[in-house]
Amino acid sequence: MTAPFDATRGPIYVEAEVSGPTGRSSLRLLLDTGATTSMIDPIMLIAVGYDPDSSTDQVQVTMGGGSASVLRVALNRLTVLGQHRIGFSVLSHPLPPDAGVDGLLGLDFFRGSILTLDFRVGLITLS
Cβ-count burial of 76 within 10 angstroms (0-12 exposed, 13-18 middle, 19+ buried)? Predict the structure, then answer.
């Protein structure tokens, strides 16, 4: 699937859908090729029925502000650019209120796929 992005400025955002135990929700994710693992704000996870605080899967991650222990949650499904990931695990970590995104889409989502960022025409393709 192919989607447009503004190649002239700023970060690249993608639309996503997360499916949880009690529903589905649309997300706005920041494409972050510097992130090895995808992350979603716990508020969004709670909205579709996950309880991040009950997760026993805790990992140590390094972020811009240092390292932190973060909970990991296995999702029923995450869909981005027409690609579905079933049982896909994401980090549950709050983002600043002014971030303007619901999470980060990291390299783990793209493994085994072909990701093309065409900056000449402003198109992102995932196949």
Answer: middle
- Structure confidence by residue, pLDDT tens digits, 2-51: 999 999 988 999 999 999 999 999 999 999 999 999 999 999 999 999 99
Q: Is the pTM of this model over 0.90?
A: yes
29 CB burial (10 A radius; 0-12, 13-18, 19+): buried
Distance from chain centroid for Cα 57:
18
Asked if residue 14 lies in contact with residue 105, where contact means CB atoms within 8 angstroms, the answer is yes
HSE on the CB side for 61, CA within 13 Å? 20
- CATH classification (class only), 2-126: mainly beta
Q: What residue segments make up the domains of the chain, in order of their start?
A: 2-126
